[in-house]
């Protein structure tokens, strides 16, 4: 019998048995990582450099980009390394760190998505109160609360999960360190129930946020339908519907991953669900929330034009 104090490493799930498929997964994850890094890097640069984007939404977009980068960089690089070098191991400390940082960024991200929905609700349904309800101090407090929520959420789950004695081997059956996979290795019934209770409470809080988001969008859609201009309604719907779709994918797959009955669990299903809530939303967020924003696109165009002009001047000045 082994326990958590003596276990040196865990075995992650191999994404494929054949070497060709392993390399395919490596290149796929590399493309996703580079796209996320490029898109979020551009967003961070544009918001930081353009004073026209120093608004509540710009501030929340900057924070969202940071959480997206954190989520991608916590799980994907290790999966790429394992696929490239045909290995499945991760150290005990590395697993604990991966779980902590992933749930830190994940908790902060969902809190920020809720706050950004509130921002849209106030902007569309209560525009006269926007400056009062979303002043600079209020935005700073909300962002700090989102990051603090993610930290507390991650700390509680990491401490509870890694305090469990493990006696069911060290194979996680997942491509990153995920709580349900570690709970399957536990031999402590009371500890298992304690962590399961924390998961249920966290899911209930997340579901409450999701209900708030849905309710806010219902109010937003009611206000949008009263807009006389068809172009204005189309612009509002084209912005809000993708937001709601990504949040729904994020929440539904995350809740399903943690509360699905063991009878329907399988390695392939668990892998697909975990990718849908851990990799897809952070990769899509820059395109859904940010790069559809006209002000942000204008700022990016201006920044890219300035960089290109500067490069041309440097090139010809050295000739």
Please provide a written account of the structure.
- The chain is an all-alpha fold.
- It is 76% helix and 2% strand.
- Helix 2 runs antiparallel to helix 10, helix 7 (189-225) runs antiparallel to helix 8 and helix 8 crosses helix 9.
- The mean pLDDT is 81.
Briefly summarize what is shown.
The protein contains eleven helices and two strands; from the N terminus they run E-H-H-E-H-H-H-H-H-H-H-H-H.
What are the SSEs and their pairings?
Blueprint: E1 9-11, H1 19-49, H2 56-85, E2 89-91, H3 92-125, H4 130-133, H5 136-161, H6 179-183, H7 189-225, H8 230-259, H9 267-278, H10 280-290, H11 294-317
Antiparallel strand pairs: 1-2
Helix pairs in contact: 1-2, 1-10, 1-11, 2-3, 2-10, 3-5, 3-7, 5-7, 7-8, 8-9, 8-10
Q: What series of H and E elements makes up the topology? A: EHHEHHHHHHHHH
Count of discrete alpha- or pi-helical segments spanning 4 or more residues: 11
Can you tell me the overall shape? globular
From the alpha-carbon coordinates, what is the Rg to the nearest angstrom?
A: 22 Å
**Strand ordering within the main sheet:** 1-2
Distance between the termini: 72 Å
Number of strands: 2
Portion in helices: over 70%
pLDDT averaged residue by residue = 81
Please give the largest β-sheet.
2 strands, antiparallel
Structural class call reads: mainly alpha
* Poorly predicted runs of 5 or more residues: none
Report the portion of residues in β strands: under 5%
Quick tags:
two-stranded antiparallel sheet, 2 strands, mainly alpha
